[in-house]
Amino acid sequence: MPLNSFPSTVSEETLKLKVDAARDKLYVDVGFWGGLVPENALNPSKLESLLNAGVLGLKSFMCPSGINDFPMTNSSHIEEGLVTLAKYKRPLLIHAERIPDVSSDEELDGELDPRSYATYLKSRTPAWEESAVRDLKRAMKDTEVGGRSEGAHLHIVHLSDSKTTLDLLKDAKHSGAKVTIETCPHYLAFSAEEVPDGDTRFKCSPPIRDAANKENLWEALLDGHIDMLSSDHSPSTPDLKLMEEGNFMKAWGGISSLQFVLPVTWSHGKKYGITLNQLASWWSEKPAELAGQKNKGSILPGYHADIVVWKPEAQFHLDDTHAVYHKHRNISAYLGKELSGKVLSTFVRGNLVFAEGRHAGAACGATILAK
């Protein structure tokens, strides 16, 4: 991702810094997204130099990102950025939350406990997602055949609201807009009712919503209205999560999850009858297609042998003795959970990079740059 690193990847020069920093440190193949920010959105030559340097696409925020050198974009920035992206046929990933023009009756009123998850939920209602998608109406229309940015592709990251926001996106798809949607395992595994007060490991944006919303997300995923899954993994340091203070209003948002996404999806999806083919589509095939990777995402002749070996029936408890390979093991909301589906080994382009709890001794991953 272009942010959560300094400097953010918003120019050809900052992309080179990140690619150079990654050299000889990658254990898997890694591609790079660029950032769409006001500084480059209205400057096609700047955007083109970033795209020519090899980013797989761009990402923008319609609300403050929390990172000083990655300011938010409005719909005008997005519409102009899509015109440039259309020439390259690469996607724009959008964090689709926008502060509503009119406050909702649900929003904060008076003194509320910042340790209460309900307080945070009221501060970031579904109206934020709905407002952003309504503001994208013209941008989505522009991606249709004959539109101003035909060939461009809008991708909505980490959808949480399964009601009005999802309906608006389904309507845009039905009208011919080039739009895809993802959601995340934490929206499918957790519901607001079970988030303990003060446990800021569960804070993310958009928020984890109620149990009915979770059921609707599963239905939309199974029906194909949501195209794929992503981790939205947060690399937050423990101090930013304010775990001792437990203040949901000040803690950094994001779920630490990358290691667990396969067993989490499988464990919670079994009651809906999900299949291994669906898992492969949501986690491999569709994301590879989004990122323009024609030799990844499927087990086919000529494709990279990126393969996971696992025991779907094996159960395990994420207790204090379980190996966690995230940099900061104690910030994951999944700790303490029972899961099914144990990963035994992992291959990257045919190279064994993980087996029996041990990682490869040498970094054999490659940088992925668009051409």
UniProtKB/TrEMBL annotation:
Amidohydrolase-related domain ranges (all copies): 155-353
GO MF entries: allantoinase activity; cobalt ion binding; zinc ion binding
Keyword Chaperone attached: no
Pfam families per UniProt: Amidohydro_1
Coiled-coil blocks: none
Record bears the keyword Zinc: yes
First-tier enzyme category under EC: hydrolase
EC number(s) stated in the UniProt entry for this protein: 3.5.2.5
SUPFAM superfamilies from the UniProt entry: Composite domain of metallo-dependent hydrolases (SSF51338), Metallo-dependent hydrolases (SSF51556)
Cofactor(s) required, per the database record: Zn(2+)
Top-rank taxon: Eukaryota
Keywords: Hydrolase, Metal-binding, Zinc
Subunit and interaction comment: Homotetramer.
Function: Catalyzes the conversion of allantoin (5-ureidohydantoin) to allantoate by hydrolytic cleavage of the five-member hydantoin ring. Catalyzes the first step of the ureide allantoin degradation followed by the sequential activity of AAH, UGLYAH and UAH which allows a complete purine breakdown without the intermediate generation of urea.
Family to which the UniProt record says this protein belongs: Belongs to the metallo-dependent hydrolases superfamily. Allantoinase family.
Protein name: allantoinase
